[in-house]
Amino acid sequence: MFRCIIPSLLQRNRAASKVIANGCGGLQRLSATAVLLDRRAICGLSTAASSTTMPVRVSLLTTNRSMTTAYQGIPGDGKHNAHLISGIIPFQATLVDGRRVEVDYFRHVEDDIEEDEYYAGMALMNLIIREGKSWPFDQEFESVDDWRGYFLSHSAFVVRAINNGMDSSKKDSSRSGEILGCFYVKPNYPGRCSHVCNGGFITAPRFRRLGVGRLMGRVFLRAAKDLGYKSSYFNLVFKSNVGSVLMWESLGFERVAVLENAAALEGMEEGELDTAYGYRYDLEKLPDNYRP
Fold this sequence. Notes:
The chain is 17% helix and 25% strand. It is of the alpha+beta class.
């Protein structure tokens, strides 16, 4: 079973303690201000507050923000140019198991550990980094501001459960408000190429195979077009991530690049490197009446 592990830096925080359930059903006594994984999201996510002041949002193609890329950015709130997608976000849908969910912005609630989703998002990101099979990172985020600079610099969303249900194992229950996944939309390149967007997608391990990834992919297409991007390019979709490869191709993404020996992923033989694919979608060909 996958066991949730708290980042070592945050684990040392002893400001306050709280007993929570981890994703394997056990109990751990952990710092209430640390990034915690419980049943509220992935394995579930417990959260902590941030008092960081949000930067002023600027347009996609101006000053510093236009110089951000897929791997760096200005810490934000994930609501850049939100007025352009007000007709679709929040978006409600039904998963394959009948559960109702909503695609919405991250909720930031200061001084409320149980409601602040910034730390929840960082914990989910760090969980996937530790898993080591679908993202290129090999070091976790230790600061919520660093994570915000990466994930929330432009447009970012969560898939949040509206009602109670079960996880994909059908053994563990989950409740309304849990985060089933999250994703971002932002420029892949700076300046003159910032009209080409990138997307980063995470489905919480315990909610895989329920249609969360496909829902995020479909909302991504509509949102990216409405945000003014001309095309989308995914840099690294690993060959071994068969589910991801099949999903993007089924959604109409075109494989335009093959990069051999691209990634040393967890679970591979020593010295073995996985192949990465590059996928492109021409957003100008997406129908104006396209609905997720």
